[in-house]
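User: Can you help me understand a structure? I only have the sequence.
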Amino acid sequence: MNPELSAITPSTRIGDLFPSSADCPRFEGDTIVQNLLEFFSRNDDDAVIVTRRSAHVGIVTLRDIVRVIHDSDNLGLPIRDFMTSPVETFDADTQISDVIEAIEELPYDKIVAAKGKNVLGIIDKHRLMSLCYRQITPMVKHDYTVIDSLMGLVGEGEKGLLKMATTDTLTGIGNRRLFEEVFQSYQKHSKTQDYSLYLLLLDVDNFKSINDTFGHNVGDSVLKQLAGLIGASIRKTDTFVRWGGEEFAILQRYSDPMAVMKVAEQIRKKIDEHSFETIVHVTCSFGLASVRPEEDLESVFERADKALYRAKSDGKNCVRIDMG
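Assistant: Let's start by predicting it. Here is the structure, written out as tokens:
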């Protein structure tokens, strides 16, 4: 790993984990196991790239070699017979948060970081996420997407405490504490980012009458169904929480403000057209505000809340944006 890297954030590039002079060892697939074993014995590397006509086609690790040399006859076989393939390669400029999201579905453990044709290094996906848990968590410890991806790597005790601290008990999504800390972290690093932040508030229309007419159990069911519906409608990189009562908040990162308005309208329409259990029809009103550089949460929340109030005043079941 790169000894010069002092801190890791979700926006850290995967290539930054390796020294700038790094170039992962490469061996042609015809190389025999004996030669690779001798290489491992002389060097600190524990994995190499397998190439065919200069293109990397697989990975062989020291563990792979140890596993196959139980019979001395294997020492003369080509290393391509024991490589992991295909290779999942990420451009060096890819942000770690995007890498973590992508590798969750991979059936193999090793991934490759490359800059053009130059392979910077190989990293085990579990090692990567463990590294992120240790170093990202103190800085962005409540980024819901990252934490959700890392949950499988921490002990049961830590997992329980982490979820209790950042999860709404009714709906299972994030809570206000989660949102506040993610917001503060994004604002702290906003000057180095090429996206804008947007706060989207939504409130269930006529929720009191739902509770009064159908009972609080039905009201709770509506909130849980709503959380699932919205959660399936947004990106994993969005921070989605129950702010309190029947009010929810979404923190979104976009470079195009029109895209945010489009997403808000899509969510509104999806809720309006959804058949909820027992009461069938539910609508929500939305207030949207862009987050100004260095603005505190109280200020942007007040602006989004005013936009939400306008949506209520304009007949509900609509999206209004703060133009200030």
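Now, to help you interpret it: The radius of gyration is 25 Å. The first strand starts at residue 26 and ends at 28. Let me know which part you'd like to focus on.
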